[in-house]
Amino acid sequence: MQDGRTDKEADLGTEDQSDSNSELVDSDIQQEEIMKVNPILHPFPDMLPLSNKLINKTNLKEVKVTEPNNFGVENIKELYGTLAKTTFSAIEALGDGFQVKDLSILIPIVPELFSLGSKINEAKQELGDVITKEEEESIIAVAVDSMAFGNNWDKELVGLITKQIVGIQQIWHNRAMKSAELKANLKAGS
Amino acid sequence: MAEDPKTAKPKTWWKRQEVQATVIGILSTGVMLFASPITVAYKVAEIGLLIASALGFNGIRLGVKSNNLSLTKENYKL
């Protein structure tokens, strides 16, 4: 390291051959051996990856998805709409201090929640698929319609939150695709 | 349903929306500083910032209406 060579180069034997006449002094060999054993004398090769975990954002790369859109978003829309309606009603029903003030708002939603059970499996398939811009906008429209907002600001907020959730779904989908690709490669290799 | 803002009593500090917004905002900003922009944590933090903005705005609006926004022990029930 001190001579401008990395450890890998030293291990691979890629020493500078130009000064072949120069021989390693005993003190240099001792220094190399000590450095291999004692990690304190090797601050940077071991320390940099640890610090990079916090500040280096270039390790992860975005995966471009080229899969076709096999499923729609009908079940996702129903699920998300009901969840949005439930959240809105819960905010309306719960007063300050998280105490139920008006139970009559919550009661009509209970049957809708039970009916969603059969749609979860289909929604999972749809979540594993690509969601296009048009589908995203239709999901936002369903969420906004199910929440009876009085002003446009809240509608904008719901739209922005929904866009972030769709972004999370895309990351999830990309990771699933990547892991499937890795598994296929492993099988092909074995 | 909601209490009249002009007669609303001051709430305990952790029930106040501006305090909740500050906590969520600080946590979300911290996550966004250290996480990569294409991770789930970063996206969740972005949602957290949106919610914090809405909560903070609403909390300050209510505080201005009921005139209990100043940082005193009585207003925040410390």
Can you walk me through this structure?
The complex is a heterodimer of chains A (190) and B (78). Chain A has helices at residues 7-12, 26-37, 43-55, 74-93, 109-115, 120-127, 133-146, 152-189. Chain A has 190 residues and is mainly alpha-helical. Chain A has two domains: 23-54, no CATH class; 74-189, no CATH class. In chain A, helix 4 (74-93) packs parallel to helix 7 (133-146) and helix 7 crosses helix 8. The longest helix of chain A is centred in the last third of the chain and has 38 residues, at 152-189. The radius of gyration of chain A is 29 Å and the shape is elongated. The two termini of chain A are 39 Å apart. The model of chain A is unreliable at 1-6, 8-21 and 35-43 (pLDDT under 50). Chain B is mainly α and 78 residues long. Chain B has one domain (12-67). Helix content of chain B is 63%, strand content 0%. Chain B has three helices and no strands. The model of chain B has no long low-confidence stretch (mean pLDDT 86). Classes of the chains: A mainly alpha (190), B mainly alpha (78). At the A-B interface, helix 8 of A face helix 2 of B.
Per DSSP, the total helix count of chain A is: 8
Query: Which structural class do the helices and strands of chain B define?
Result: mainly alpha
Largest sheet of chain B: none
Q: Could you give the count of β-strands of chain A?
A: 0
Shape estimate of chain B = elongated
Radius of gyration of chain B: 15 Å
Mean pLDDT of chain B: 86
The largest contact between protein chains, plus residue counts on each side, is: A-B, 22 and 18 residues
Q: Which characteristics define this entry?
A:
heterodimer, A: 190 residues, mainly alpha, 2 domains, 8 helices, 0% strand, disordered N terminus, B: 78 residues, 63% helix, elongated
